[in-house]
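User: For a benchmark we're assembling, each entry needs the component sequences followed by a predicted structure for the full assembly. Here are entry 17's components. Please fill in the structure.
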Amino acid sequence: QVQLQESGPGLVKPSQTLSLTCTVSGGSISSGDYYWSWIRQHPGKGLEWIGYIYYSGTTFFNPSLKSRVTISVDTSKNQFSLKLSSVTAADTAVYYCARDRVGSGIRSFDIWGQGTMVTVSS
Amino acid sequence: DIQMTQSPSSLSASVGDRVTITCRASQSISSYFNWYQHKPGRAPKLLIYAASSLQSGVPSRFSGSGSGTDFTLTISSLQPEDFASYYCQQTYTTPWTFGQGTKVEI
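Assistant: Structure for entry 17:
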């Protein structure tokens, strides 16, 4: 079955760029039936959607992060990636990637990665 | 942004109990609404989509209802593996937003 796995540094210095990759296995990221999203969870807090990408490269971001976020896709590697620039301690969180599907006309995240903890600290 | 407010934020229950969690949206979202289960260190799991549709593989003791602004997740008979946090989500309009979560404890 389809699985997602996040990877990337667990520690990033303030003002630098956080970079994470999500590898999709068991299915093709180029399937037109899905979008691919990033979500994060601050320690002890709720979930925050960051943005999504379609295999064609079309993206949409949360306005609260839009100025600092880049999401890209590499269909040859079956991966999509997140870059968040100018990070501060407020960006410390567990970052999840997820498959974003349309079921009954409703978008939902039907498959998630395990998540990766990223700490912003000098 | 559409605000999603869950209640309660936590609850204590026993195996076999009927558990109900509610979520209220700050504006009408029709049925563009989902429920997720999340256990520490695990990937979140989609339980209910489109307010009342059971995701494939999810036990039938989970059910969802509601439309517009008020939604409910019901666990008909709580099982040991159901102790977790539960989150609601709206996908009516971007940015997609989540509730703050409900922790179900023993």
